[in-house]
Design a protein that fits this description.
alpha+beta; UDP-n-acetylglucosamine1-carboxyvinyl-transferase, Chain; 2 domains; 4-stranded mixed beta sheet
């Protein structure tokens, strides 16, 4: 099993370039199905989830060319409306294809999507929204069958501001009849990125970034060239690494507005943060101060995708920190691995109480999900001795060349078996 071998104790120093956003790239790639032409994307991260999305798009009939961060998708000959079970199970975001395939072909058959083991993450919100848009949805033995003779846009109110459901409704509605209003829509920056590319294709979408999105159906979309936004969670992860190792790093290709809630919490550790136009400089403090409370919330609140990295960073902070997870019920699976390394963490329901210790100790640990895996990389960077981290395929789902980027910053990390 492939692993990361990390020898901890080095301060991170230098510059790191933040890759394109995983959570923006995947729905944008799904949107390429809708224009019946060519979509040219730049700043596409080289990560496992993108490779899975490419496999799914090719399976339904797209032709794809890739050169580094450039991906060209030709969707003129999309013919298949079945998304294979083996691909759906590998990635949660594969459900994004469903709205796009129905929007283009008026039908789609698929199984329940997979992904990280961080909670149930049901797709009920997606299916209820589809039904309101005149899509017939039938379930049988773990498979879902969707079809419609006409997508009828309407007003709908999401029970929860789900990013995935918001994106799926947008993808389904742009080629529908009439107007759709999404109330209680997710407000994440990735929703704005999806709106921007859809409008560049010729769609009529407005309101992304607020809790109400309006979509006026159009008959046809056109070819598009688009550059994907930087990954705010990757940026936050490297900032946590900088604080945890008491280092001095500069992040390039960052949208500071997207990570304001992360920066405000990092400042509580007494790290020094210098903000420039498209970069952030972080100078870690010799003593990491604990953070009284962190509560994950939908955007613009503190992101659930940053919860585990902060907990890992806070294991060697001064004092006690309290972190409450309000989005996913199983997002503390990584904590047992940190405890194995000497961390003092008590999990009570959805709250973790972290009492800072002087040092962590290297150990054999395993990643069970993407962000928890990133937290364990942080732990390896700050631990005494050597850490062997297995299950790194989870990390590779969302972080481009994390080992190579850390090497450039002075970390001692390599791939092993």
């Amino acid at each position: 099993m492939e692993s990361y071998i990390i020898n901890g104790g080095n301060k991170l120093e230098g510059r790191v370039n933040i890759s394109g956003s995983k959570n923006a790239t995947l729905p944008i790639m799904a949107a390429s199905i809708l224009n019946e032409g060519t979509t040219t994307l730049y700043n596409v991260p080289d990560i496992y989830d993108v490779k899975i999305m490419i496999n799914i798009l090719e399976n339904v009939g797209c032709k794809i060319y890739r050169n580094r961060d450039k991906v060209v998708i030709d969707s003129r000959n999309v013919s298949d409306t079945v998304i294979p079970d083996v691909l759906m199970r590998q990635m949660r975001s594969s459900v994004m294809l469903v709205g796009a395939v129905i929007g283009r072909k008026r039908q789609c058959n698929f199984s329940y999507p997979g992904g990280c083991e961080i909670g149930a993450r049901p797709i009920d919100l997606h299916m209820r929204a589809f039904r309101k848009l005149n899509v017939n949805v039938r379930e049988n033995s773990g498979y879902i069958y969707c079809d419609t003779d006409c997508i009828k846009n309407t007003e709908l109110n999401l029970d929860f501001p789900s990013v995935g459901a918001t994106e799926n409704v947008m993808l389904l509605s742009v080629l529908g009849e009439g107007n759709t209003t999404i109330k209680n829509a997710a407000r994440e920056p990735e929703i704005i990125d999806l709106q921007n590319i859809l409008n560049k294709m010729g769609a009529k979408v407005q309101g992304a970034g607020s809790n109400i999105i309006y979509i006026e159906g159009v008959k046809k979309l056109k070819d598009v060239t688009y550059t994907i936004m930087p990954d705010r969670i990757e940026a936050g992860t490297y900032l946590c690494m900088g604080v945890a190792t008491k280092g001095h790093i500069i992040l390039d290709n960052v949208n500071v507005e997207h990570i304001s809630s992360i920066l405000s919490k990092l400042e509580e550790t007494k790290a020094r943060i210098i903000i420039r136009k498209n970069s952030i400089e972080l100078i870690g403090n010799s003593k990491i101060m604990g953070i009284d409370t962190i509560k994950t919330m939908p955007y613009p609140g503190f992101p659930t995708d940053m919860q585990s990295q902060f907990v890992s960073m806070l294991t060697i902070s001064k004092g006690t920190s309290i972190v409450t997870e309000n989005i996913f019920e199983n997002r503390f699976k990584y904590v047992s691995e940190l405890i194995r390394m000497g961390a003092k963490i008590n999990v009570e329901g959805r709250t973790a109480i972290i009492k800072g210790v002087k040092n962590l100790e290297g150990a054999l640990i395993e990643a069970h999900d993407l962000r928890g895996g990133a937290a364990l990389v942080i732990a390896g960077l700050i631990a005494n001795g050597q850490t062997k981290l297995i299950g790194i395929k989870h990390i590779q789902r969302g972080y481009e060349d994390i080992d190579k980027k850390l090497l450039l910053l002075g970390a001692k990390i390599k791939k092993g078996e």
